[in-house]
Amino acid sequence: QVGSAVLSRPPPMPAHRHLPPTPEKLEALSLALKSSDVGQVAVAADLLARLTENPDNARLLCTHCRGEALLKTCLDLAVQPTVPSDTRADVLMVLKNSLGVSEGQSIICKDSLLRPILEAPPHDLRSKADDDQPKASCQEDAGKAQGAGEGENPVSPESPQATAKAEATLPSPCEEVAALVRHAWLGLALTAVVSTQGCVLEGPQDLSCLQDAVLDLCDHRQDQQACVDGLLLLQHLYERRGPCFLGPQEAQKLARLLRWGLGEMDTASAAVGTAPPASLPTLEPRFGGGSAPKGGAGSCPEPPTPPSVTGKAPQGEAVSQALRLLAVVGPMPCFRAALFRVEDEELESEQLQASAVQHINVTITCLFNAMQTTGAMDAIAWRAMSTVAEVKSVRRLMRVHPQVKSLFRCLLSSLGAADRALTEQLVSFLKQIFTGATDQFLSTEPIMFDNMGRSDGLKRLLSALLQSWRDNADTVHRGNIVAFLADAMFFSSFTDAWQVHAQARDLISILFDALLWKGVEGTAGLALGNFVSANGHIDLILDHERATHSISNVGWFLKRTPPGWDTKMQIYYLWRVLRSRKGCKLLSRHPHADLVIAGLLTGVRHATMEDNEVLSLLECFLNDDDTRPIALRGSNPAHLLDGVCELLTNGEPDLCESSCLLLQALLEATGPGALLTWSGASKFIGVLSRRRHGKEIIDAVVPMLQWETSLTSSLSLEYKRMWVSDQIRSNTPGEAVEISVNRGELLRGVMESLRDPKGLQHGVKVKFMGDETGAGDGHRRECFRLVILALCNLEFGLFKSMDGGRSLHPSSTASDAQPEYLTYFELVGKLIALALMHRETLPAARFTLALRKMLLNAGPLTVDDMASVDPEFYKHKVQYLLESKYAEGEAAMTLADLDLTFEDVPQPDIFPDARHELHPGGSQAHVTEENKQHYVELLCDTRMRGSVSLQVKAMTAGILSIVPEDVWYQIQRVITPVELDSLICGLQEVDLQDWRSNSSSDVDQDTWELFWRVVGGLSMQQQKDLLEFTTGSPAPPVGGFAQLPGYGTIGMVQRFTIARNLNSALPVASTCFNTIYLPKYSSEAEMSAGLLEAVAHRNVGGFYEGAVAQ
User: Fold this and answer.
1) For 232-270, how does the pLDDT look when each residue is reduced to its tens digit (9 = 90+)?
2) Which of 324, 456, 601, 691 could disulfide-pair with 639, CB 3.0 to 4.6 Å?
3) Beta strands 764-768; 737-741: pairing state
4) Among positive and negative, which fits the CA dihedral 423, 429, 434, 435?
């Protein structure tokens, strides 16, 4: 019928035409379809289309002897480009109707012509034949449409008046026929997909082409019904084969189609009293009228819309189909990115641009309106809402959307329905929209719960959830309930409503049961923990008749489940309820308390900064009188030490403090013996000594572990450096002693100033007299460096070096060089003690291993120690005798030939008569093969110790004048001779990467990079000179540049800093603050020359032209 408002299918056939077709009729129709007369073919196709609307008639057609041939003829006509549009529409309807019965499927689906039909949708309004004769074809279409319900014979055209009226209000007949073709093709494709479960076309490429064909057809949006049918077809196609062919371009087309479907709210929104936002695109009328103008900035670009076709589908059909399709494709990230224009789903809404937020809000408005008009009682529609709420920014904007109150009101009214599938999807949406709601605490608390109606609404919600839990044992559904409760319980509004609910205890019981319900165990623990944290409703948990059962559930779960998120969440629940005094009492009486403790101990090594409740909970148990015996029972302390050691070794650095607090609680409960007797004590002590928060623990056990060499050797050198300093420094109140010295008489001035050791345990400040002002740490470092450099100068005569200056040993002839040699040696000892106390270095004081062993009283000296004092003597005397090298070669000799006695002749060539007996009567005792070992030992001991015993004694006295004797004895047990060298002299090499990574910048990036390129090009000695120029010491301390001593209290560190200097031609150094001030340089060569010049004059008359240590 021309001008019919509904073109979803041809007008229904009158009742007398539903009579079964006779064989004669089918024979005649078959012949007519093959006729060369276009008119006969059109009439036959029309009659067959109407005839097969009845499934029984379609089945009779398919089982007729000519049925298969007739259907193949229809397939041939459908693919021929010369067939008029109306005929093509009719044959497509015949094929669609025949596919609805199994007999037709077996014929049509195996025919090769079905594939090209489904892969080529009717994009054009007219076929090639229509283009040749447009007017006649359209008149034929109109005439046939007019006579559709009046009989088999065509009727005459309408009167001119009726035609004029129809032309004024309705689209042209050609457009109607094109709409019929589109509808017929979509109907055929849909029937093919549904009837064959998506297997009508085999292979992914074919399905991709079908998808693309539908999207391309609907993307033109020539009429509403075609788009609605397209939505339905895509839904069934994706449900059966999955949306696995959806690329970025296809996703954009599909998103436009869905937005078109949801855009029906331009008429539906008035029903709910909500107008679409200004940015919502105004969609063209689906049928009738012209195309309306597009919306504002929020609208997305659409392809040009062809002239609309008259007619309108039932209201809400497009919305309903759009929601159903959204439920299928919503989980696909590429589609969600196209729909919301958000590539990263984890972005916060605050991170999006304003245009993106506006677009998302427009889409959310359409979705909310759609749910309130057509989807409130549709489970699939709510599933669609859940899938889009998986996008973080979308659900965040949903929670604060102006229409969310209406949505929640709709949800609460639907939740009371008895429909199980609907309830499942409602709960799923609640779970999804509350996910991460705690991130928006301030905005979510007042908005979301007000929108739910506060007390009344929440009570209804809780009652519905409780009933649904009882009625539906599906694991996923129950998991969604628990997940929703876990997030919602973080808010006091929700937990307050829970607490006063008539079935509050039943609701708690649900979560207690869920602690062992597979799949939701961890979420249940999170829900219970959040319930307590919101408003402290701990009594509702602890006073529950099943509280002990919940603890048992957690214990058994921790026992049988490997550590992971679920176990951490159940531990979180225990942490919330058991760390109180009441909770500790409950655990102490619990029959499965040991099981709980064992589970907690297993979780220690898996703690993270985000989930570290297990550490504080065990600490609480160790500090509580009731639970402490349980926590310390059996091998629990050893397991706890294992876990904490693993955590400190491989865990997150930020967990150090809480781990050390737990360990401290254990040691306070057991004493240091638990740690020192543990099998892994050596490794653990080493780990603790490298952690900032472990220092207090090690300090407490050092008095005991210092007697165990295996334990002291595991202590880090950084810790020993701090410990030595702390031990030397007096704990009594007092100020550092300030001394004033003259650069011209530096050595004498320092010796006189330090002669009285009183007060030196509080530290020393140095002030240079003359034109320099101030007394600071930088001056002290420079002063001590210069003084020790003078004392260790070989020409000064106190020390000698037999290895080319690499190490120093007291000279046995020091008294000849310096009459006050013992006073000077005592000064060396004082400087060593002060350097150790201030955690500073004396790089010039690089003593031999033998001297360091004597200072630390580290056992008797050995023959091998002689190698560090005099390598040549060790090689040509010691090894010569011990290895019997005198008996080798052509001129072999014996010991008797050497005529050696137990005497030391230091310089036999110059002073052969200067002899010292190694023991009484040694001059008469000859060296033999039997006693040569003893001879060598006595000879080396005399050279290393005996001849310099007064010097060593004076150095020790200088140390003990500042370091208490008992403290020095402890230091001797903790520090090794090798470590003493590092503590006194610092690191021998300069690590440029360590230097740079522990430096600060007050200059621009170009100057920063230029400086480090220049430093990298300097030699090692030049780098040390630069370091000395800036910090007062040429060697970084133990621990590297991160431990550079700074200004102020002992132990303060100061990063190496580069700053800008605009008032000097050369670099200026502030050694107290480890800062170098650089003038403006334009090149590496210019900066390198300036640095080297400033550094070269650092010791000449103070400094040179502004290169001053401030």
Assistant:
1) 888 887 887 776 667 888 888 888 888 888 874 343 333
2) 601
3) parallel
4) positive
